[in-house]
Amino acid sequence: MNALNTFRLRYRNVGPIYVKELHSYFNSAVAYVVIIVFLAFLGWFYASNIFLINLASLREMFETARWVLLFIIPAITMRLLAEEKKSGTIELLATKPVHDDEIVIGKFLAAWSLIAFALLPTLVYYATVASFGEIDNGPVIGGYLGLLLMAGVYVSIGLFASSITENQIVAFILGIFLIVVFFVLDKILLFVPAGLVSIFEYLGTDYHFLNMARGVIDSRDIVYFVSVLGMMLACTMVGLARRKW
Q1: Pick from 3, 28, 126, 187: most CB atoms within 10 A?
Q2: Res 51: pLDDT
Q3: How many domains does the chain have?
Q4: How far is the C-alpha of 90 from the C-alpha of 83, rounded, in Å?
Q5: Residue 3 domain-assigned?
Q6: Are 164 and 243 in contact (CB under 8 A)?
């Protein structure tokens, strides 16, 4: 109980930061643009499956989502720390009894939640497909879980990019670059020395997502996503702490 109370006191500011950031998304056009663009792309491929090729499956939707996230996530994370550093509000926040890790975790959870909110309406697609015929729920569950975990990794990468610059455009470009690097690692195996193939394959986010999207929820894939996510958040905290050096 004492440990739990200590944890609550240590991270008591995460909640208010999370709520503030989430409100900032929905009080501007950002959240609505992200959700509309995301659903528009996914809806097109969903409709193509159902009405053009008569296939009752969400596979194309999941495969499209993994590409859309490459560009949407850097767009919603680029301002999180870069804007505050440029305006000086990060220093004002630091004068309060708020730790850097609380700032990072609160902002991370807000951006990750926005992606989760964007995914939520796609459950309508699932309900529609299920009403047309029998659907294998394994790949559906794996696909949604894989998208959420992969989105978490991409948000942590985008947040890191935002922590090392005051320019939002630079943060956006750097975020896309780093995310694409992780995305393509398992796609360049032909150019990798034989002894490094398994390492490059394991480090690729798309490799683990596609495993889960097949309905195979392996602990190794979950450990990978959680490990990279944690590593990038740790790097973000270091990047944010540079202002004190």
Answers
A1: 126
A2: 57
A3: 1
A4: 9
A5: no
A6: no
Residues, the chain, total? 245
Residue 220 lies in a domain: yes
CA distance 1 to 120: 35
Give the integer Cα–Cα distance in Å for 169 and 177. Answer: 12
In the chain, the amino acid numbered 91 is E
CA 40, CA 66: separation in Å to the nearest integer? 14
How far separated are the first and last CA of the chain, in Å rounded? Answer: 36
Distance CA 228, CA 216 (A): 20
Output the DSSP codes for 177-245: HHHHHHHHGGG-GGGS-GGGHHHHHHH-HHHHHHHHHTT---HHHHHHHHHHHHHHHHHHHHHHHGGG-
Tell me which residue of 85, 147, 156 sits closest to 118, measured CA to CA: 147
Both tokens of 229, joined, read 């996510």
Residue 95: predicted pLDDT = 61
pLDDT, one tens digit per residue, over 93-150 is 666 677 788 889 999 999 999 999 999 998 888 887 777 767 778 888 999 999 999 9
Range of the domain at 175: 11-244
How far apart are alpha carbons 114 and 120 in whole angstroms?
A: 10
